[in-house]
Amino acid sequence: MGRQVGGATESERRREPRYDRNLPLRVGHDSTDGLRAESINISTRGLYCKSPRFVAPFAKLKVAVELPFAASGTATVECEGVVVRVEPEVETVGVKEYRLAVYFLGLDDTCAELIARFVEESH
Predict the structure, then answer these.
(1) Whether the Cβ atoms of residue 101 and residue 85 lie closer than 8 Å to each other
(2) Beta partners for 4?
(3) Exposure class string for 60-92: b at 16+ Cβ within 10 A, else e
(4) 22 — phi, psi (to 5°)?
(5) What is the pTM of this model?
(6) How far apart are the C-alpha atoms of 43 and 27, rounded to whole Å?
(7) Quick one: DSSP state of residue 48?
(8) Would the pLDDT of 32 be above 60?
(9) 121 with 70: CB under 8 angstroms?
(10) Tell me, what's the pLDDT at 26?
């Protein structure tokens, strides 16, 4: 299990630290009509979020995250991702919130730089 250090969750397995940030996002087969979710933490490799619906592990998704910069307004990062973990692990009657770990696929350098700049600015 990771530990909290200076706003970042560290783990021996992670190449990039994750930063606790609650950001609006959309996940789905199409980032414009996907379901609304909220990030719990984010890095340049992926994010952990709360979703109102179950999404199966290994599902490929379009992800759109809004990054609110203090000085320059909002920037939207869009990319593909794959669900690498879901909690609870199966769709369960009565559960109103699922937690998804999403690994970014093919995040371009510009988007990775936007995320890095955002977490540095809001650190």
Answers:
(1) yes
(2) 9
(3) ebbbbbebeeeeeeebebebebbbeebeeeeee
(4) -95, 105
(5) 0.83
(6) 16
(7) E
(8) no
(9) yes
(10) 92
